[in-house]
Amino acid sequence: MKPMIPTPKLRVNEIFYSLQGEGARKGSANIFVRLAHCNLTCGYCDTEFESYRELSLEELLSECGRYKCPNVVFTGGEPLLQLTEDVATAFKDAGYFVALETNGSERPPKGIDYVAVSPKVAEHVVSQKFEGVHIHELRYVRNRSQGIPRPMVRADHYFLSPEFNGEFPDRENIEHCIRLVKEHPEWSLSVQEHKLLNIR
Ligand code: SF4
User: Which 3 state secondary structure label does DSSP give 174?
Assistant: First the structure.
């Protein structure tokens, strides 16, 4: 095993083991590492991301190692406020498939296997930050008042995710997104199934 580069402690909101609930990797088992803090304040945000424990990289790897799963998803808050190339590389060296869920406001480091961007900011901001970055999926939360997104970046998959009403599906938002997908078939519907299944 390579010697580990000393990195600052990470502020970790929570670590849990569950199934990916949305997007192209939906249904796959993953260790979710929710890093604390966010740089945006979205009105519909239902995520608590301010509380945290400070863990060294070794401690984080050790906690993830309790789960017998080779997939890790860094999420938040906004994970790119803390997720550096050293952290991604350490997980890669430990044998993990490293996925990222980001709001698109910060550029990802090298060493990420799967980049899912769910932009909460104007599309052009994403394009400036992500020049040269391979985006595997773009996922936009949409409600009935919003039209089809016009992203300035390319991705392998384009998803529309109907905005929920808290934990509950919103029928009008779902029907609106279905209409948008039918009119723009390059997009696909992605419902937040973890909420429907009542899992994390
Ligand atoms: S970017 Fe995500 S975590 Fe941050 S405030 Fe918006 S919805 Fe919440």
Answer: helix
How many other CB atoms sit within 10 Å of the CB of residue 83? 25
Marked catalytic residue, from 106, 170, 193, 194: 194
In total, how many domains does the chain have? 1
| The pairing of beta strand 29-35 with beta strand 10-19 | antiparallel
pLDDT digits (tens, 9 = 90+) for 97-145: 999 999 999 999 999 999 999 988 777 778 888 889 999 999 999 999 9
Picking from 32, 26, 27, 30, the residue whose alpha carbon sits closest to that of residue 49 is 32
The Cα–Cα gap between 198 and 4 comes to: 38
1 domain residue, yes or no: no
- Residue 142 maps to a domain: yes
Whole-model pTM over 0.90: yes
Q: Is 21 in the pocket of ligand 1 (CB under 6 A)?
A: no
State which residues form the domain around 188. 10-196
State how far Cα 6 lies from the chain centre.
26
